[in-house]
Amino acid sequence: MKFHKKKITSKIDKFKNNNRLNKNKFPIDKIKSPSNQNFFLWGKHALEAAIINKKRNIIKVYHTSEMCDWINEKLKNSNRSSEKLNEIEKKDLEDHALSSPHQGVMAEVEPLTWLHLEDYVEQNTDNMCLVLLDQLTNSQNIGSILRTASAFNVDGVVITKNNTPMENGVMARAAAGAIETMPLIRVTNLSRSIEYLKKNNFFVIGLEKHGKENISECVGNPQTALVLGSENLGLRRLTKEKLSTSAKIPIAVQTESLNVSNAAAIALYVIQNN
After folding, report:
1. CA distance 16 to 190
2. Nearest to residue 46, comparing CAs of 176, 150, 149?
3. Share of the chain residues as helix, strand and coil, in percent rounded to the nearest 5
4. Which range marks the domain in which residue 71 is found?
5. At which of 109, 131, 162 does a domain end?
6. Which of 22, 37, 266, 268 has the most other CB atoms within 10 Å of its CB?
7. 90 and 226: one domain?
8. C-alpha distance from residue 106 to each of 35, 94, 145, 179, 230 (Å)
9. pLDDT digits (tens, 9 = 90+) for 2-39
10. CA distance linking residue 161 with residue 143, whole number of Å
11. Are residues 105 and 168 in the same domain?
């Protein structure tokens, strides 16, 4: 007669198995969609900047096992609690990160508090440079402009409340951390905001394909505001009417136009280095 050896599982083995299964690993249906205006951000640059920014409220952090040590170190260095950490599988992250790569980390965060233009201008000294976005709708472009603005020491970026996306993960990813450091100002009426800036000695330059002057001819003012139009429509009529001047970037005739974030980089380099 043939006997089958009965496998005996010890209490220690059971404990190890259960602990392995329950080590804060959440299946995809446990990653809840952000509530209210909360959003997911992902990528090492975006998440590290959010952790460092004390004004950013982080709800939960999701990470792969490979990123466990990295995320714990960043939280510890910024005196943040590790209680909000949740280890998940890489494939689960990919379903929630809207642009790649997510680099194994993602967090649900609350949006930052927006600043008021008048308060911000009054609290700061002379020699300011601002960027105004006239109803840009592409989050990738807005994020890239935030990154560029940070690179060229811009003092703040002004965005309209309507017809412009709220903070989101795509914007944060493109900004590569600049969304946490660049002052963001939302206004109801951009043309009135331009009037306010002009009354406070700002020289307001609207960047257009057929601007009146080359951008290099519009520099040298201690208080400068650069206005960028939407990807498809450019600057609106009311916005154009309030400008101090309009400027263009000379480009080769075979090229119709530049991407708005690329144009912003060129214009800001010229403005900040002359």
Report:
1. 61
2. 176
3. 40, 20, 45
4. 23-109
5. 109
6. 268
7. no
8. 16, 10, 22, 16, 29
9. 444 444 344 334 433 443 333 444 444 355 556 568 99
10. 16
11. no
